[in-house]
Amino acid sequence: MAKKKAAKKKVAKKATKKAVKKATKKKATKKKAAKKKVAKKKK
């Protein structure tokens, strides 16, 4: 049982890491879009 619990925890950690990566990617793309908008306004 202890081994199974540890395995589940590992899987959960991997899942959260993936979720965090996705979130940071989304934030980065939003920032890029915002920068593009600012550049267009300046022109």
Structure description:
There is one protein chain. The chain has 43 residues and is mostly helical. It has one domain. Helices cover 95% and strands 0% of the residues. It contains 1 helix and no strands. The chain has one helix spanning 2-42. The longest helix is centred in the middle third of the chain and has 41 residues, at 2-42. It is rod-shaped, with a radius of gyration of 19 Å. The model has no long low-confidence stretch (mean pLDDT 80).
For the termini, the CA-CA separation is: 64 Å
Compute the number of structural domains.
Answer: 1
Instruction: Indicate the percent of residues in helices.
Output: over 70%
Question: Which radius of gyration do the C-alpha atoms yield?
Answer: 19 Å
Query: Which structural category fits the helices and strands?
Result: mainly alpha
Mean pLDDT: 80
User: What is the number of E strands?
Assistant: 0
- The ordered string of helix (H) and strand (E) elements is H
Q: How does the major sheet shape up?
A: none
Helix count from the secondary structure assignment: 1
Give the overall silhouette: rod-shaped
Our estimate of the beta-strand percent is under 5%
Low-pLDDT residue spans: none
